[in-house]
Amino acid sequence: MAFAKIGTVAYDCPDPLALAEFYAAVLGGEIENYEGKGYWYNLHVPGGQQLSFQRVPDHKPPQWPAADHDSQQLHLDLDVADIEAAQEKILALGAVPLDLDDEGGARDFRVYADPAGHPFCLIRPEAD
Fold it and tell me: 53 has which bridge partners?
């Protein structure tokens, strides 16, 4: 039986406000400067989820798709209705393409890095 629940997913990054703003532009929600300090921000996403961003001055982003000491560590899968339109928006927000070869639409995802280098995927939902 479960005895805990996820409170937040925290990202290390060099500029927590900038990364919170990136994800707010992608997911919506409200940004909160935790206790008025500039090293931790929370993003309260519609639906009740929370992402957090903490300043790490010597942050080294994961190296996708390595499976060794510089692995991707974790990533978000973001479901989108229109992958082409979503890609245009996230690239304009500063995302970096890592793997856009969706095999002509046969593969249901594309891989990007956020402005701090964390990988994430845009996922095309399965057709019903």
Answer: 11, 41
Q: Would strands 9-13 and 50-55 be described as parallel, antiparallel, or unpaired? A: parallel
pTM of the model: 0.79
Task: Name the residue with tokens 């845009």.
Answer: 122
**What is the rounded distance in angstroms from the CA atom of residue 59 to the CA atom of residue 71?**
14
Query: What is each CA distance from 20 to 5, 37, 81, 106, in whole angstroms?
Result: 22, 14, 23, 32
CB 106 within 8 A of CB 95: no
CB 68 within 8 A of CB 83: no
Confidence of residue 2 (pLDDT cuts 50, 70, 90): low
